[in-house]
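@channel sequence for tomorrow's demo:
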Amino acid sequence: MTANADMDHSTRILVVDDDPDLRKLIGDFLAGHGYKVEIAENVVAMRKCIEAQRPDLVILDVMMPGEDGLSAARRLVTENGPPVIMLSALGSDTDRIIGLEVGADDYLPKPCNPRELLARVRAVLRRRAAPRPEGGATDRTRYEFAGWRLDVMRRELRDPAGTFISLSDGEFALLRTFVEHPQRVLSRDQLLDITRGRVEVYDRAIDSQISRLRRKLNERAEAELIRTVRNEGYMLLAKVSRP
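structure tokens (generated this afternoon):
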């Protein structure tokens, strides 16, 4: 795809890295594909940029002086901040899983191919945009369970009091799978197969993502919603309706 075909002058991306050469390289490449790019050298500068004008996506280095990228990503998820793609010289599976567990939407090891980063940026932005399908079909996009409301097209989860609950892409894909298959035991393999194509949920991280999702639900639920069925998998206990 050419740069002209990818132009999106309304999308803002914030690149956060303590390496000035890498900031410039990534920033210039994304700007060349039509994105509005801002750069920040650390988490303090990142937060100032977000407060001034919230970006649509943050590309965040893990290892930086002061507050590190993992801590910053965790705070952004807690505060319902913009989606995050993490970059790190630590490229092992364990490091990648940790990055996803704190709530990052994607994780790339350094050095990364700029075109691969661009593809990941597009994918995360597409998932977060969640456009409503043509024709106005909405009968299968909203779910209610135990007072909770999940709007798939808008990517909104609200608790029984109406409070918006922030979910990572992995958590959202898993919850959507549970509400589409309520009161059924789903094995880890089934969850991986069903969520594949919606978001990349890694095998060794799925238990942790379910744990994080369950914790967010249990903080505001009167009863257990997701149960672990020993040696079998997981099950959403609540009845689900489509209003």
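heads up for whoever presents: DSSP finds eight helices and eleven strands in the chain.
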